[in-house]
């Protein structure tokens, strides 16, 4: 585990849910603390810099239909940010967010930098915090795309540290990638959630790092 990259290794960036609805700057419906204009510009600049160094960039996009079961508004009596039980599973109730085709679902940088945008959360019955597999076990195709491109290492960052970044990272580790989490380019919902998520990712083998340390290696 965590062996040093070898000559056959190939790195990709995986930008997680860098979407308007998750930001304070765009007055998103599920705004994550600290997602101001500086954060947004820093992520864009770092992603462009990686791309210019020849690293392919993949993005995930939360892409819900209006009737998605994770929205509090679709579950009468539910309290936002609290879990309810649906079909025997615990589901947190979220404000409506990242509805297909709305501005809130927009990724905040041009698609021209992306090798692929992998959408998730389209099935109204299942949430999908992970960019790899939804809660019903349906694969998004991300793993196939990365494997076909010969990717062994992932630089992961985006929103939110304690939700979609965490679940995507844990699935990436399970799928056999060496995962580098760029903490400075992530923001999360709560300070305790962020700390616990980073600890869990580290325990499972994630390399916890930041942009400065990565850039120093180029
Ligand atoms: C996310 C809550 C609900 C995320 C997505 O991208 O972290 N969080 N859907
Ligand atoms: Zn969502």
SSE topology string: EHEEEEHEHEHEH
Strand proportion, as a percent range, falls in 15-25%
CA gyration radius, whole angstroms: 17 Å
Ligand set: pyrazine-2-carboxylic acid, zinc ion
Q: Are there runs of 5+ residues with pLDDT below 50, and where? A: none
Terminal CA distance reads: 22 Å
Mean pLDDT: 96
- Give the spatial strand order of the biggest sheet: 5-2-1-6-7-8
Secondary structure: number of strands: 8
SS field, number of helical segments:
5
Shape: globular
The biggest sheet amounts to: 6 strands, parallel
Helix content: 25-40%
Which structural class fits the helix and strand makeup?
A: alpha/beta
Structure in words:
With 218 residues, the protein is α/β, with parallel strands linked by helices. The protein has helices spanning 37-52, 142-148, 161-174, 191-203, 211-216; strands at residues 11-16, 57-62, 83-86, 89-92, 114-120, 153-158, 178-182, 207-209. The site of pyrazine-2-carboxylic acid has 8 residues, from helix 3.
